[in-house]
Amino acid sequence: MRNESMSELESLMRTGPVLRGFRPGWLAFCLGGAIALGMAACSRSSGDSGNGYGGTPEVGVVTMAYHQAQLSTELPGRTSPYATSDVRPQVSGILQARLFDEGSLVRKGQPLYQIDPAPYRAALDSALAALANAEAALPSAHGKATRYAALAGQNAIAKQEYDDADAAYKQAVAAAAQQKAAVESARINLGYTRIIAPIGGRIGRSLFTEGALVTAGQTQPLATIQTLDPIYVDINQSASELVALKTQLTGGALTATLNDAPASLVLEDGTPYPHQGKLEFSEVTVDPSTGAVVLRAIFPNPESLLLPGMFVRAKIVEGIDKLAILAPQRGVGRNEKGEPTAFVVDAHGIARLRVLRTAQTVGNSWLVIAGLAPGDKLIVDGLQRVVPDMPVRAVPAVSEAGATHSARPS
Fold first, then answer.
1. What is the mean pLDDT of the chain?
2. From CA 394, how far away is CA 343, in angstroms rounded?
3. pLDDT digits over 207-263, tens only?
4. How far is Cα 141 from Cα 144, in angstroms, rounded to an integer?
5. Is the pLDDT of residue 90 over 90?
6. Which residues constitute the domain of residue 26?
7. Are 310 and 254 contained in the same domain?
8. Which of 67, 79, 148, 169 is the S-S candidate for 165 at Cβ 3.0 to 4.6 Å?
9. Which whole number is the average pLDDT over 331-337?
10. How, if at all, do strands 393-396 and 58-63 pair?
11. In this predicted structure, what is the pLDDT of residue 284?
12. Is residue 27 located within the same domain as residue 138?
């Protein structure tokens, strides 16, 4: 086309009378316009016949099919210690020594504080002496009771005298037992002067120093021990979501149970936590102020990265859906109402707009619960050229990795 236009202009320029009087600039303008018109005509001709389908746009499609999908949810949560114990004295006295380093790890049974044992050692010695005195009276009382029993059998003494001797013996036995218990109590109190760790874990700062007077049953603890390995993560989930999940589990739509489900964590700064945990249980009561149920997961914490009270995000595997419809995210848009939409190619090659219902993302796809069915051809490539109810030519879509994409059931 361009060559024909140039030939015509050259022919006109050779005809001297026709172009006589024209300025050189005007000739250049005419020549440029003719060239532009020729190029536009060539471009239109090429566009009309390049695909051989009379202008029908070509779109890449993915054929929908059932897949096996692992369903998970990401929820906010906070860490809490596996066990907590406030260390309090069980006897009163003066603190003589603190036997641990603040902030260190302590083991169960490790000595933590020493209370002045002198008063309790004296009380034990006194109890031992009283026990010896009570036990010394036992042989005499026992012998007298035995002799009076023989005499009473011969009617040599009054029955009342025998009864008094027998009662005296039994009182001596009871007194000895009472003193034995007093010795044990004194020994226990003496042992309480050395305060030991009731659980293993990390101990905090000491709230009392050497020389302080402490009392049995005081409200303020000497220190607090927290077990941080393992550690709990308390997660809040909407009660309605939990009910819907359990309904799916009961109905057989999902093939996994919520208890013992694997869980992972993302820290507050977005860093993935390196250890995987599992779900322990779900609370049986709904918080009326939030409408949420507490789920508790347990995680190993050998490096003590997790501290009590930290905010985290927990990802919990809720179940396995064997009949999931997964639509690639690049094939799903939004309408003016914010609803997810997608184009599918029907049996007549017409692009039809569908309004979808999606549950969550699974990898790079949306889990579709309404709007798509197995066999539907979802348009994922060439969407910018598609409007509702227009004819299109469907070809297999090219995946993001560059290979032709063809959906197959897992």
1. 81
2. 12
3. 999 999 999 989 999 999 999 999 999 988 777 666 665 655 554 555 555 556 788
4. 5
5. yes
6. 2-48
7. yes
8. 148
9. 91
10. parallel
11. 65
12. no
- 102 and 154 both lie in a single domain: no
Q: In CATH, what number is assigned to the domain containing residue 188?
A: 1.10.287
Q: Are residues 205 and 241 in the same domain?
A: no
| Residue 188 CA to its chain's centroid (Å) | 44
CB proximity list for 254: less than 8 A, separation 6 or greater: 71, 245, 248, 318, 319, 320, 321
Confidence label for 180 from pLDDT (cuts 50, 70 and 90): very high
Q: Quote the CA–CA distance of 45 and 73 in Å, as a whole number.
A: 54
Query: Which of 10-14, 71-75, 140-144 is the least confident region?
Result: 10-14
204 and 98 part of one domain: yes
Residue 307 has pLDDT above 60, yes or no: yes
Residue 238 sits in the same domain as residue 296: yes
pLDDT given at position 153: 85
Q: Is residue 407 part of a domain?
A: no
Looking at the structure of the chain, the number of domains it has is: 5
Task: Provide the CA 251 distance to its chain's centre, in angstroms.
Answer: 25
| Three-state secondary structure readout of the chain | CHHHHHHHHHHHHHCHHHHCCCCHHHHHHHHHHHHHHHHHHHHHHHHHHCCCCCCCCEEEEEECCEEEEEEEEEEEEEEEEEEEEEECCCCCEEEEEECCCCCCEECCCCEEEEECCHHHHHHHHHHHHHHHHHHHHHHHHHHHHHHHHHHHHCCCCCHHHHHHHHHHHHHHHHHHHHHHHHHHHHHHHHHHCEEECCCCEEECCCCCCCCCEECCCCCCCCEEEEEEEEEEEEEEEEHHHHHHHHHHHHHCCECCCCCCCEEEEECCCCCECCCCEEEEEECCCCECCCCEEEEEEEECCCCCCCCCCCEEEEEEEEEEEEEEEEEEHHHCEECCCCCEEEEEECCCCEEEEEECEEEEEECCEEEEEECCCCCCEEEEECHHHCCCCCECEEEECECCCCCECCCCCC
